[in-house]
Amino acid sequence: MASISEWYAGKNVLITGATGFMGKVLMEKLLRSCPDVKALYILVRPKAGQSMSERVQDMMKCKLFDRVREDNPDFHQKIVPISSELTQPGLAISPEDVKTLTSCIHIVFHCAATIRFDEALKHALQLNVISTQQLLSLAQQMQQLQAFIHISTAYANCNRRHIDEVIYPPPVEPKKLIDSLEWMDDSMVCDLTPRLIGDRPNTYTYTKALAECVVQQESGRLNIAIIRPSIVGASWQEPFPGWIDNFNGPSGIFIAAGKGILRTMRASNDAVADLIPVDVVINLTLAAGWYTAVHRPKTVLVYNCTTGGINPFHWGEIEHHVMSTFKRNPLEQAFRRPNANITSNYLINQYWTLVSHKFPALLYDLILRLSGQKPQMMRIFNRLHKAIGLLEYFSSQDWEWNSDNMNMLMNQLSAEDRRTFNFDVRQLNWPEYIENYCIGTKKYVLNEDMSDIPAARQHLRKLRNIRYTFNTLLLVFIWRVFIARSQMARNIWYFVVSLCFKFLSYFRASSTLTQ
Ligand SMILES: CCCCCCCCCCCCCCCCCC(=O)SCCNC(=O)CCNC(=O)[C@H](O)C(C)(C)COP(=O)(O)OP(=O)(O)OC[C@H]1O[C@@H](n2cnc3c(N)ncnc32)[C@H](O)[C@@H]1OP(=O)(O)O
Ligand SMILES: NC(=O)C1=CN([C@@H]2O[C@H](COP(=O)(O)OP(=O)(O)OC[C@H]3O[C@@H](n4cnc5c(N)ncnc54)[C@H](OP(=O)(O)O)[C@@H]3O)[C@@H](O)[C@H]2O)C=CC1
């Protein structure tokens, strides 16, 4: 049987969400490991004042593509951008482009989605559900289509503790919801949202569950697979360790902790941190594409792409390794020395939020105000608290995912494919991975140079000296205000000091006797 790379040779691939984190890694891997792939058609919209072509050109200059560029400097010739806005009718694809796509595409990877946890329900529904439906309709017209791979999330059914590789009944019939929301104004939808999402934490997981149902309903004439990754993190091995380009999920938390901004967060030390490296997800996705096209399973196969059941690691361990990495490889211009702690206790977390977040922020803003600058720290902390509030649900509990299909797929691969498209997370060394992940946030998200580490260390030493000076001044202040002014406080203070002195004298005397 042909290897995975051989199967992709000569194929035209359609990718949605190609400008996103996973989409880019998917393109890179296809171009590097399947060099004979015919063309990658990518649906892209203009954004933030940049045209579609400007965005694609910028994207191809990205460091992620360095290895591909080395192998084939003309790799951009294989990329065919198609203008598309997924929230528009017909995905806003021109009739000529529809004609091209329906005649030539062999496989579709649907990665596009809104992954914001605070997305308005109407927009999340439009992008995650309705555009999936529209893309499936387009796929039905593709004459040469062999497989359609839908990227979902392992948390689509996070209202369950144990999650099998099946499509669960939807919380509501998607079509009915789409019809109902159509006539409602935004404020009505906003009021109804908590009732609709029920025991799910946000509109993201809710609409991703509905999208799976739509995929199943439309699966009639198509060969479909669903990939459900858990928390997608930096790359493990490919194209190089630690590739990450956004603040989503744990990345923003790691950065905030490394900058010394985040000091406390509610998370369970013992809960499994189900991170999955992005290259693992992409290798599994490409292998699933091949398997779906070649073996044509009778039903929609769902692949839970998780690590917890195979090679578990816990949030407490993550905290330890993140802190130790950032102490050895500090981020530039840290606000304070990195020292974050997680706790599952609500009151303890509230206490430390007040003492370690709000108080320093107020103090810093006061200094900025006094020096004629604009206060900014409280604003940063308010945003951080909002983000943490949305993530806590996922860091305070754990889930069990069945990953039989991932194992089955691994067993279907030849030894060579298993090496080229490695998704065997049993080999993942977590401490090393977390170290590379943190360094990746420094290098690729914050664009900091590793050669500046000595200066960053020097800055941390300066912060330590400021802290010692501050603590000493605080002690003197407390002494002046509370002790020196009250006779009773003074008496208590002298009593405590004399007790300590007596204890020390006794200790010294007894240790001299024993010599
Ligand atoms: C040591 C500690 C150990 C800790 C252990 C505990 C860790 C727990 C982590 C748990 C993670 C669980 C994730 C669960 C994922 C489920 C998996 C998925 O399916 S889905 C995948 C997961 N999905 C998600 O993760 C989505 C979650 N995110 C959201 O929903 C939203 O971003 C938001 C509501 C949090 C903030 O909204 P909003 O306030 O409107 O802010 P915007 O977003 O609009 O960003 C504005 C600008 O700020 C920038 N920036 C952002 N963060 C940071 C930062 N930390 N710093 C600096 N900058 C930051 C940002 O780049 C942007 O810049 P620009 O582009 O303007 O230049
Ligand atoms: N990251 C994670 O931890 C996890 C992600 N997933 C799933 O993986 C998939 C990819 O996620 P990820 O790469 O992290 O997400 P990103 O937010 O990085 O990328 C989202 C992509 O969707 C595109 N998109 C969004 N809205 C539109 C629109 N209206 N029209 C056209 N394109 C649009 C974006 O394009 P543009 O650049 O123009 O905005 C971007 O390319 C999603 O389906 C997500 O649910 C699942 C589990 C975990």
TrEMBL record:
EC nos: 1.2.1.84
Record key words, sorted: Lipid biosynthesis, Lipid metabolism, Membrane, NADP, Oxidoreductase, Peroxisome, Transmembrane, Transmembrane helix
The Thioester reductase (TE) domain, residue ranges: 15-284
Major localization class: membrane
GO MF assignments: alcohol-forming long-chain fatty acyl-CoA reductase activity; alcohol-forming very long-chain fatty acyl-CoA reductase activity
Catalytic activity: 16-methylheptadecanoyl-CoA + 2 NADPH + 2 H(+) = 16-methylheptadecan-1-ol + 2 NADP(+) + CoA; a long-chain fatty acyl-CoA + 2 NADPH + 2 H(+) = a long-chain primary fatty alcohol + 2 NADP(+) + CoA; octadecanoyl-CoA + 2 NADPH + 2 H(+) = octadecan-1-ol + 2 NADP(+) + CoA; hexadecanoyl-CoA + 2 NADPH + 2 H(+) = hexadecan-1-ol + 2 NADP(+) + CoA
One GO term describing the cellular component: peroxisomal membrane
Organism superkingdom: Eukaryota
EC category: oxidoreductase
GO BP of this protein: lipid biosynthetic process; long-chain fatty-acyl-CoA metabolic process
Keyword Hydrolase carried by entry: no
Family the entry assigns: Belongs to the fatty acyl-CoA reductase family.
Role noted for this protein: Catalyzes the reduction of fatty acyl-CoA to fatty alcohols.
Name used for this protein in its record: Fatty acyl-CoA reductase
Species for this entry: Carassius auratus
Gene for this chain: LOC113048510
